[in-house]
Request: fold
Amino acid sequence: MTGSETTFSQRDTESPRERRYNAILDAAEALFLEHGYERTSLADIVRRSGGSLATLYDLFGNKQGLLRAIATRWSDETAFCPLDPAVTATMSHVDTLKSYAFRQSDAMQSPRAIALMRMLVSESVRDRDFAAGIYRDIHLPAIAELTELFTRWAAAGEADIDDPQAAAKLFLNIVFGDSMLNALAGIEEESLGREEIDWRLRPFISHFRIGQIH
Reply:
């Protein structure tokens, strides 16, 4: 089963509008991956999903709206912000950061994710407003989630972080920055392994004294 598929139990609880929304989104993602974003027309998507162009325009606005919705769904499916306090409360702070980094690195190195990122970058270069929307939908929630976590640790005396938001941005850049560029450029490199991610995180954890002060 691919990441864009939905279980029967989930589909049973959807309204007709939600089913139509997901059918169009599934068809669009499949066609974008098969033929490329530029070579896929809205008519192609309607033929595969059923329905009408009017419904597609009503739900997504245009082809960019479809791509943005696909990207948002992907980030939700891969739990781009998985820092649930109920889960992290049972882990050490260091293990929390490592678990986050491992999971997101794995998700971003999948063939589906790499293909999607290339489409997003290509369209973002062409349209600045689209780029801003993707940044708001995907990147800012990750920064906000990490910022909240670092703020909580600092307030509890469990880390020495004077600027939680800057630390959140630094963390994401340390772990993902060059990996994303390599994927987008099509550079044939092995994805970051857990040992390398662990090595990258050591100075971050040490500098901010995460889990070391009270």
In short: DSSP finds eleven helices and no strands in the chain. The chain has a mean pLDDT of 85. The chain has two domains: 8-65, 78-207.
